[in-house]
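Fold sample X.
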Amino acid sequence: MSKVRVRFAPSPTGMLHIGSARTALFNYLFAKSKGGKYLLRIEDTDLARSSKEAVAEILASMKWLGLVADEAPLYQAQRVARHKEVVKQLLTAGKAYYCYATKAELDELRASAIAKKQRFKYDNRWRDRDISEAPEGVEPVVRIKAPLTGITEFNDLVQGNIKIKNEEIEDFIILRSDGTPTYMLAVVVDDIDMQISHIIRGDDHLTNTPKQIILYNALNYAYPEFAHIPLIYGSDGKKMSKRHGATAVSEYIDLGYLPEAMRNYLLRLGFAHGDAEIISDENAVKWFDFSKVGKSPARFDFKKLDNLNAHYLTNKDNDALMKYLCQEYPDLSKLEQERILALLAEIKVRAKNLVELRQDVLFLRENFKPQNNLTEKAKKALEESAAHQTKLIAFYQEINDFSHDNLYEQTKFFAEQHDIKLKHIAGFLRAKITASHISPSIFMIMEVLTKAETLRRLA
């Protein structure tokens, strides 16, 4: 088997779609599983819609996902001269021709097809005509001479055997009238020059494949293997779009998801290895095989993603999370860092994402004012314990040992003596100290904050 070389080829006309990210992931995993190369090609030939900002966003998203290419990115717009050179070769070999059909003629053909309820197909009117018959003032396109009979057949690694009757394929355009190459031609030329062995992409490209095989044949190159993976759908079974929620990778970064969780989740959208839900990067490479990729569209489930992300966050190294928090809050004092690190193991298990984690550590800041940040449920907890607040504060003023175990035992004894439910005392303490109704063990928090800070907040 020749060396495996795959490519991910996004168009920089907007942010990187989450479905495209999964395509990149499948390319990456297949290459790594075969000891091959994973490459990146920026298909920026649509100059009107492409932008440097979109390229930067794509590269940043790929870096965040951990899907960095093995070689420098190839920019398709820089290869137009090469594409035109191939068109000339095809013209010289008689495998392509200039077409002078006017827009009016094509519109007439299209209208006729609609009237007959037929699919529009160019009628090859310039396929065998001499260029001397060309009308004045018409800039021609260049069309490939597609085979008129027989079938184009290939075996897709996901979809199985695919056959298309050649009579259904028109002489498609490979060079526009303005001299720019079409997507169909540029992709094939670039894949040849990049020595791509496998083309892994969404199944919305499946109809392009027979045309591209025709081009490979015309250029006397063996075409690569193909794997067309199903698209990602929303919860309603329709193509993933804004109405379903976040669609761009950068949006998921802003929402606080971890890249390792996103890789795991995107892999499971269409790939299965037994009942495994948690799949490490190592096992993803080890297990990846197209025989385990389904043919049906996968449905994006935000609840499953949240659960998976919470798992990875819980198991994330505390030092790595502290580094992240220090980047988000560059003014964290040494004392605040010590407080957070002491409670991080307890805090992170309650957060679904990094946005929640950032919020959940705020009560450990030195300038935190609980009374200004009370949640509605915290306010209710204060109301429920209003009659006991004065004696509770006095009670904690008398305690010198602010260790977790001592605070718990002393508070439990106090609750029994005064016939107060322990949960009401805990609710009061949480509200006064953290401004919330949920937190890690309140007695652990009091130990970390120390007696002086605890009493300041209780007061």
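Fold sample Y, listed below.
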Amino acid sequence: MIDPHNLPPLPALMIAGPGELNEPELEAVGHQVIAHYGEVWRELHDQTVSEIGKLLGAADPPYLVPGTGTTAIEMALLNIFEPGDKVLIANTGFFGTRLIEVATALSLSVQELPVEPGAPIDPARVKAQAKGTAGVISVHVETSTGVRHPIAEIAAAAHEAGTIYVVDGIAAAGGEAVDVDSMAIDAYVTATQKGMEAPSGLGIVALGQGGRARINARTTQVASWYLNIATWDRYREEWGAWHPHPVTMPSNLVLALASSLQRITNFGIEAWIEKRAALAGRCRDGLAELGLKPVPQPGCEANLVVAAWADNPAALQELLLRNGIMVSGGLGPTHEKAIRVGLMGLNATNEMVDRLLDIIRSA
């Protein structure tokens, strides 16, 4: 039996998420539990939501929802679309497939847009195939391939086709540039455990103008109480001075998130993302020098996840584990063909990247 107070030695996490917490977030999440209502809590909650809005470039206050990133994806799709709506979903890999599965479970009619592993989504294909659909859905970063997709250009293509655009940014927010309003993204979904460097357990939905308009124009009732944005809006309006959400919030997770967001915004969001890009480049170039070529095509490489082809990824993972580092293997199109290095949280440093490269070099 595992003793939760005395875990065995564990490796340093350089997986595709979550990342290990920095010391300030460890202290915050270990704070004595505080009430999820009252003046102090309301100010903390509102401040955290405001900081999320700044990070994502969303003027419409985002929703901070207990659950995973997938919870937030369901919330966005459930509210923006109605059963039977036809949607175009880019199948970019494992998590593109996940979007198709979630949409299908919500009774949406899915038209798949296949995307070659390692390639970015082609906005021209989106424009051509999105006509007559209720919306386009894609990931921002496909975690299984380490590809960053051109969301601003995809949003423009979707709008030219007369429809809206919903983005899964779970593996992107905090590590990639995103501006919901200036990019005209209609809804952006993310979570806290990757680029935001906070604990897992909180999902986020940020609405752009098109997403809000679509929700306001619904003709059918949302088939959920918990995930119904109208429920969350009602509590914001009627209980906002004391309890601005309909459920018990995990207050310690929000404390840790408030701490990490403060660090990111104090550093400067643009400078923070540039730092993440430089670290990913260091890791990617180092792996390439050792014969592990990048999965993404040049110019679309992600900042939080570096994916590299490997002849024997399981052996590399085992080698790294023996030396105290855990990395991820491939998923979907990269399964048993690649390793994926996560650059988030405590171990997103030059020193850890160099240590990882030295271990591989020693083999």
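Sample Y note: The CA atoms of residues 132 and 177 lie 30 Å apart.
Also: The longest helix spans residues 269-289.
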